[in-house]
Amino acid sequence: MDTPRVLRLRLFLMLVACIFVTTVSSSVSEKCTVNKYRNVDGRCNNVHRPNWGAKNSPFLQVFLEVQNESHSTKWPEASDVAELLSRLSIAGNKHLTVMSGMWADFLRLDLAIENTTDNGVILNAATSFLDASPIYNNVSCEDSPIRVTVSEFGYLKLTPCTRSSNENSDYSTTIHNLLILEHNRLVEELRDINPDWSNNTVFEEARRITIAQLQHITYNEFIPNVIGHAMMTEWNLNPLKRGYYTGYSSSNQPGTMQSIFA
């Protein structure tokens, strides 16, 4: 498990990576239909550029301008940096428990899963949105510790994977279980309140609420405790207390940077 300081650094880099990158050129490859619910593969979040942030989109890349004189600079090896960091004394944090690492690992699976094509191109097999895709997008056992299927009545069913490349599978499975149980609890509540709803409507509404809860907990409770309220304010990450966000622009491209989640 990451130490509190390393967790802070990784989360900060994750936030920077997920800040929308402004771009102006893109072609529309498909038409989006009007739908109350988000697509599980992330398509059509932006109706003008349907594939932005969708499953199997390329990772975003950042190219920094390199000065000529920097070519002569000898940078330390990555292994040397890792060894140095491992020797640092890290103080504990009363606000962060083991559950913080579990939550962070689930967010990593939610935002970035490498998928290498036959010609060597590395794509993101997850959506670039915080949408609980590890339980709703049904990723492969290579990338997730569990498989999730949907019953005909809108419930989620959990099937443990016999193999997983995720080294923290036990930790991320904990959050998987919690969110699946919450989804199924919502299905029960919604069925009692709206007995006339179809199975699909019950499923989509429960999914919609579960995603909203995931986003709310992440931005209202998890992130402030990791990076601090001062940085939340500096980066304008605090959710609104009332009203709606008005800064949306269809030219802002959502995406995930590969190097941040390596």
Automatic annotation (TrEMBL):
Pfam families: An_peroxidase. GO terms for cellular component: extracellular region. Keywords: Glycoprotein, Oxidoreductase, Peroxidase, Secreted, Signal. The keyword Oxidoreductase applies. The keyword Secreted applies. It is found in: Secreted. InterPro entries: Haem_peroxidase_animal (IPR019791), Haem_peroxidase_sf (IPR010255), Haem_peroxidase_sf_animal (IPR037120). It comes from the Eukaryota. This is Chorion peroxidase. It comes from Sipha flava. The lineage of its organism: Eukaryota, Metazoa, Ecdysozoa, Arthropoda, Hexapoda.
